[in-house]
Design a protein that fits this description.
Elements: E1 15-19, E2 22-27, E3 30-33, E4 41-46, E5 57-67, E6 75-81, E7 84-92, E8 95-99, E9 104-107, E10 112-116, E11 121-126, E12 134-143, E13 154-158, E14 163-166, E15 169-178, E16 181-182, E17 191-198, E18 203-207, E19 213-218, E20 223-225, E21 228-230, E22 235-240, E23 244-249, E24 253-260, E25 268-270, E26 273-275, H1 278-294
Antiparallel strand pairs: 1-2, 2-22, 3-4, 4-5, 5-12, 6-11, 7-10, 7-12, 8-9, 8-11, 10-13, 14-15, 15-16, 15-17, 17-24, 18-23, 19-22, 19-24, 20-21, 20-23, 25-26
GO molecular function: metal ion binding
Binding site for Fe cation: 79, 81, 123, 125
InterPro entries: Pirin, Pirin_C_dom, Pirin_N_dom, RmlC-like_jellyroll, RmlC_Cupin_sf
Length: 332
């Protein structure tokens, strides 16, 4: 998925509270268009100005459930990525992925599409012809550590993820490990990503890694984390040091658990690039624009075949130098 804003920027939002010695920081989403001003809208909780990352998770979009009956639905033209992994997860509907490696994959609910950009890749995402009436899901990015950020790009689809089921609900482990279940999806830093489905009026209690920081993104109404209410589309940052997580459903509820070892490297995140310096990002932008205009299949980002429209042009770089930033804002 692309950040299609013409002037990509971070935003101040959220607040911090504590209860019984635990940290709770609410990250409220800002609304941005996906694929153009007439396209569907998504809520973005990461990055924000004060809390930019949770572990290596550096970007989180939530959308739906959106009524796309008779509408184009998701239409994201070919666009580039560097230095990250994209994680596509659906709760309802379907999305067709194409990339410059030649991958073409229809992702459905319960399946993980994982694309590692590494040194450079381009891809498109769209609701297929004859798509269903509802689209509901999340798009996440994982930052690659410095010594792995230029790995060769690759694509994975995982349709047989580990699922833990109890009377209180079920847990699907997308990436990493949780409660003894481990995904086969490739990771580059210690992290976890899981879909929590909570039965009405029940509470899921999950063991979690104490050295990880964690956050929960509500993808339905009726989610409570440690009895803290969490509105649909909002994320609750939980800090680190806990060994158990409690998530309750007021009715049948869904939430995403994200966590990982705090990512201590400073990053430059601009448009669809994750780098370490202004010059690195500027070079990626220049190479994308050259390859896009020339439709160069041998360029850094290659060419996506099969999408019925032009590739996305990169926004202009700002007039000031892009600065590397840490996972959280330092007090001024």
């Amino acid at each position: 998925m692309s950040n299609v804003e013409h002037d990509p920027a971070e935003l101040r939002c959220g607040g911090v509270a504590t209860a019984a010695g635990r940290q709770y920081e609410l990250l409220e989403p800002r609304t941005v268009p996906l694929g153009g001003p007439r396209a569907m809208m998504v809520g973005r909780t990461l990055p924000n100005r004060d809390r930019r990352m949770v572990g290596a998770w550096c970007f989180a979009d939530f959308y739906g459930p959106a009524d796309i009956a008779g509408a184009p639905g998701m239409q994201v033209p070919p666009h580039p990525h560097t230095g990250l992994q994209t994680v596509s997860w659906l709760l309802d509907g379907e999305v067709l992925h194409r990339d410059s490696l030649g991958s073409e994959q229809l992702v459905r609910p319960g399946e993980l599409n994982l694309m590692t950009a590494g040194f450079g890749i381009s891809h498109s995402e769209e609701s297929p012809v004859g798509h269903g009436p509802v689209l509901h899901g999340v798009q996440l990015w994982v930052a690659l550590p410095g010594d792995q950020r230029d790995v060769a790009p690759h694509f994975e689809n995982h349709s047989d993820l580990p699922v833990l089921s109890t009377a209180d609900g079920s847990v699907t482990v997308l990436m990493g490990a949780l409660a003894g279940a481990e995904s086969t999806a490739r990771t580059y830093t210690p992290l976890v990503g899981a879909d929590l489905s909570i039965a009405a009026g029940r509470t899921l209690r999950l063991p979690v890694e104490q050295e990880f920081e964690h956050a929960v993104l509500a993808v339905s109404d009726g989610v409570f984390v440690d009895d803290q209410p969490l509105a649909r589309g909002n994320m609750l940052y939980l800090g680190r040091g806990r060994d158990e997580l409690s998530v309750r459903g007021d009715g049948p509820a869904r939430a995403m658990l994200l966590g990982g070892v705090p990512f201590e490297e400073e990053l430059v995140m601009w448009w669809n690039f994750v780098g370490r310096s202004h010059d690195e990002v500027a070079q990626a932008r220049a190479e994308w624009e050259h390859g896009r205009v020339a439709a160069d299949p041998d360029g850094r980002f290659g060419v996506v075949h099969g999408y019925g429209g032009p590739a996305l042009p990169a926004p202009e770089l700002p007039n000031v130098e892009l600065r590397a930033r840490g996972r959280m804002r330092r007090p001024s």
